[in-house]
Design a protein that fits this description.
Elements (H helix, E strand, L loop, with lengths): L6 E7 L9 H11 L1 E9 L2 E4 L2 E3 L11 E5 L7 E4 L7 E3 L5 E4 L2 E3 L5 E5 L7 E3 L2 E4 L5 E5 L8 E4 L2 E4 L2 E18 L2 E3 L4 E14 L2
């Protein structure tokens, strides 16, 4: 780990002038330095190709949230894509992450967002998930997933195989809200949730 100060406040991501040139640089800083306040990354319009792993960020909490969002507020202005076949974002025990008004689009990745068993309190609001293939699962949980307080609200899921897939081997006590989303043309299932409790699915 490099020596650095925890992040707090609002940062710009993209071409200069900016605080971080790439999303990868912002993610690396989070993983290495942690946070000591709420953090927002305002991402400039453009296409960003990469693959990102968010770990359990030191200092993140219900008040010290971490938001990745389009700087313009238009979810078509920032496109996150990858040439990798496995994933785009991996939430490796990452908590209190908010993805807000972004487009996730790849014809290579078989999973767009993967959450492990300890990733909790994460929110997806106003995003577009899109693939022109029938292979992609847009949001996928590992088998021991306990995605407490997950929120999926006002997103568009277009094409792919599954929209949201939570597949647990054991009965889990969690709270999941799936509300006001639009699911278009999934080959498999729009929503697949097994062995979970306290799931609220409304107005989709």
């Amino acid at each position: 780990l490099r020596a650095c100060s925890p992040l707090s406040g609002t940062y710009t991501v993209g071409a200069t002038p900016s605080d971080f040139l790439t999303i990868e640089a912002a993610v690396d800083s989070l993983n290495d330095c942690g946070v000591n306040g709420a953090v927002a990354f305002n991402i400039k319009s453009g296409i960003y190709n990469g693959q990102y792993i968010l770990n359990n960020i030191l200092g993140a909490s219900s008040t010290n949230t971490i938001t990745f969002q389009s700087r313009t507020g238009d979810n078509t202005d920032v496109v996150l894509t990858t040439d990798s076949t496995d994933f785009l974002f991996y939430l490796n025990s990452a908590d209190n992450i908010i993805f807000n008004h972004l487009t996730f689009s790849s014809d290579s990745a078989e999973r767009f967002i993967i959450s492990d068993s300890l990733a909790t309190d994460n929110k997806f609001i106003g995003n577009i998930f899109k693939s022109d293939t029938t292979n992609a699962i847009f949001v996928f949980s590992t088998s021991a997933f306990d995605n407490g307080n997950a929120v999926f609200q006002a997103n568009l899921f277009e094409n792919g195989y599954d929209g949201i897939n939570f597949d647990s081997d054991n009965l889990l006590e969690n709270t999941t809200l799936i509300d006001q989303n639009t699911f278009v043309n999934q080959k498999g299932r729009s929503i697949s949730i097994n062995n979970s409790t306290n799931v609220k699915i409304t107005n989709n």
